[in-house]
TrEMBL record:
It comes from the Bacteria. It is found in: Cell membrane. The keyword Hydrolase does not apply. Keywords: Cell membrane, Membrane, Transmembrane, Transmembrane helix. PANTHER family: ABC TRANSPORTER PERMEASE YTRF, MEMBRANE COMPONENT OF TRANSPORTER-RELATED. This is ABC transporter permease. Residues 289-402 form the ABC3 transporter permease C-terminal domain. It is a multi-pass membrane protein.
Length: 409
């Protein structure tokens, strides 16, 4: 009951000066808004990336040109400093690498080399630029691509360099709008291709399926005069460990590269490791930068409370004179400071969630998850902040002598 009465007195004293109180609350609100919004965006961006990597399949290994210099570690084992020494080199990956791995390793269930170049695609009346992509039929299942109409090209069509093409959703819309595209002709590199399929829209951060056109790897290689794949995707089904599968793939491909491994073999765990490493670094930087704003907000609370103590000196003296204990005075001012901090935190959390929803409307790929632990930590921090910056004004109030306070004008 005594604490409740102290709380009522605290609230009455604070809102006797509403402008000053709201300014102090605003400082904490802005600080909370900045740090929580940034951390929420980073968190949602990370889980979106990880979710999309996992949706592609944890039993997938990607061969990419480049390697970590002077290190025996794989990408999944590397720390941030090692990742910074990852050297990108000119690709030496080939169609033969994919064929050899699939042929010699029974545990490999799919191999899809990817060769790509930007080129023009000429339709009946329109011409657009697209990513001209050569691969194999295994590619479709690896990325769980779905057809809106038609079919994907076959292994036989790939080997025979059949002039057939599958369109990404954006390219189909640009070339044919709402008209039927199956069976129509498009010209690429002077070759007339027959449209045999259209993919459904597919979103994956860092990879655009909708602005691509797909045909067999040998066709792209010969028509675009390209020799090497940008990367090769492998899927596997095996009881062996991931490292064992990775070593087997490397040993099969090594003879095709002059006995050296000038490529990296990245699995889902490696991609997730990279994402988490970079996200943790950016989060630490964001907390360090935006955390300064909390310090400024806390100083604002302390200034407000010091002014409050000065203006309520006579009130403090009267309370002491009628029997208020030292802890009643201390509790009163700590409650006031904590109330300002917590109210600002709550308003900042609400604003952060609103901004996150707004951002999601522009970038649907980002989710709107608001981690409960982030809310709890933020509220706990605001309580601690209020107490820390309320101690000095509270101690000043305790030192006021009743006789001097009663004489104060």
């Amino acid at each position: 009951m005594r604490s409740l009465r102290t709380l009522v007195i605290s609230m009455r004293g604070l809102w006797s000066y509403p402008t000053r109180t709201w300014l102090a609350v605003l400082g904490i609100t802005i600080s909370t808004l900045l740090i929580v919004f940034l951390l929420s965006v980073l968190y949602n961006f990370k889980i979106s990336l990880v979710g999309q990597v996992e949706s592609v399949g944890v039993q997938q290994i990607i061969a990419a040109p480049g390697k970590i210099l002077n290190s025996g570690k794989t990408i999944s084992q590397a720390n941030l400093s090692s990742l910074l020494s990852f050297a990108s080199v000119t690709s030496t990956l080939t169609y033969k690498d994919a064929e050899d791995v699939k042929e010699k390793l029974p545990e490999i269930t799919g191999a899809a080399p990817q060769m790509e170049t930007v080129t023009t695609v000429q339709g009946i009346s329109k011409t657009v630029e697209a990513m001209y992509t050569g691969t194999t039929p295994d590619y479709m299942n690896m990325f769980t691509l779905q057809l809106e109409e038609g079919r994907f090209f076959t292994e036989e069509e790939t080997k025979q360099e059949a002039p057939v093409i599958v369109l990404g959703q954006t390219i189909r819309q640009l070339l044919f709008e709402n008209e039927n595209s199956l069976g129509e002709k498009v010209k690429i590199k002077g070759i007339d291709f027959t449209v045999i399929g259209v993919l459904k829209e597919k979103q994956l951060i860092g990879f655009n399926f909708d602005e691509r056109v797909y045909t067999g790897y040998p066709m792209v290689s010969n028509s675009a005069n390209l020799k090497n794949a940008s990367m090769i995707f492998f899927t596997f089904q095996s009881m062996d460990s991931l490292d064992t599968i990775r070593d087997k793939i490397g040993q099969v491909m090594k003879p095709n590269h002059g006995g050296i491994i000038d490529f990296g073999l990245l699995a889902a765990d490696g991609a997730i490791h990279i994402i988490n490493t970079i996200a943790d670094l950016v989060t630490a930087i964001a907390v360090g930068i935006t955390g300064v704003s909390f310090l400024v907000g806390g100083i604002g609370i302390m200034n407000v409370m010091l002014l409050t103590v000065k203006e309520r000196t006579r009130e403090i003296g009267i309370r002491k004179a009628v029997g208020a204990r030292w802890w009643d005075i201390l509790l009163q001012f700590l409650m006031e400071a904590t109330y300002i901090s917590v109210l600002g935190c709550v308003l900042g959390l609400a604003g952060s969630y609103g901004l996150l929803r707004l951002l999601h409307s522009f970038f649907p790929v980002l989710s709107t998850k608001f981690p409960l632990e982030m809310i709890l930590w933020c509220l706990l921090f605001s309580v601690v902040l209020g107490i820390l910056f309320g101690i000095s004004p509270a101690i000043k109030a305790l030192r006021i002598k009743p006789i001097d306070a009663l004489r104060y004008e």
